[in-house]
Amino acid sequence: MTAISTLDGRAIDDDRAGFSRARWAAAKPRMWGVGLAAAAAWIIVGTIALFWRETIPLPYGEALATLCGLIALLLIATTFFGDGFGAFGRKARDAGPWALALALFVAAWEIVTAKTGYLPLPFFPSPQALLEVYAEDWPRLLDSVRASGWLLVRGFAFGATAGFAIGLAMGWWKRAGYWIHPALRLIGPVPATAWLPIIFFVFPSSASASVFVIALASSFPIAVLTWSGIAGVNRDYYDIARTLGATERFLIFKVAIPAALPHVFVGLFMGLGSSFAVLVVAEMLGVKSGLGWYLSWAQGWGAYGNLYAALLVMALACSTLITILFRLRDRLLSWQKGMVRW
Hints:
Blueprint: H1 2-6, H2 9-27, H3 33-51, H4 61-81, H5 87-94, H6 96-115, H7 127-136, H8 138-172, H9 174-187, H10 196-202, H11 206-231, H12 235-243, H13 248-285, H14 291-300, H15 304-332
Helix pairs in contact: 3-4, 3-6, 7-15, 8-9, 8-11, 8-13, 8-14, 10-11, 11-13, 13-14, 13-15, 14-15
């Protein structure tokens, strides 16, 4: 517009220069102060781990310093080239304050355990002790993760299937609701762990009893929420579908269940949380492998480094499973994406 109105070569040059400056400013790497501060904090943590003498000599001090250095390098790279990393760079920058806080926490942890002995061993192991567990006991830890995962998958699958079927029957057929509802109100609120003496007596093996305990704990919230979802579907949907010739099968699978899915997913979240709680208890009492068994074994031997390492793995695993379930919900219920946050 400026070039056409003025026909002045200088004005055109000014516009081009302004456009070039805007492009250069957009392409210029943005300085990330929090990232640089976090990188400096991790370098300090590595320096403390490497040069400050421990009260009791510990292995893996150099490994801890190397790990801190790698984290610092990653933060520095994100500081200068984060815009080129795409979504990873944006997420890394969002997590910058947490990277700084985590560095401060690890520094304080290292000082009060390995460097000064303010917190006594073996109840408060140092960061090096956890690295030692992951480096030397990873086969047993990995086998425990595999055993717990398989046990959780079987128990939660049975519990989700049974809870969904019970909730659907109660919400759709009045006669089923008449008979099931009193039993559900009586048995459902009882903690699944209270049934352990009977369950371990009835079932032939500890593994099958553990699967049943997890299924029992997860089925109750799924049944209640599915029932509420089915019963709360707008009756106009059924009337409209019937005027178009819909059969009962169509009404159940194409109208009732899709409309009740938001409630069903809330029940799945609650059921998964309940299954985590009873998983540890079931593995401590019966089975011979798994994270619950690992925790009990580590406590029995006073290996608190192993215990904290297993707790960290368990926290990451549970958080990952909840995240996967939320991603699945957002994909299936795209019109409700963001209404329930994790």
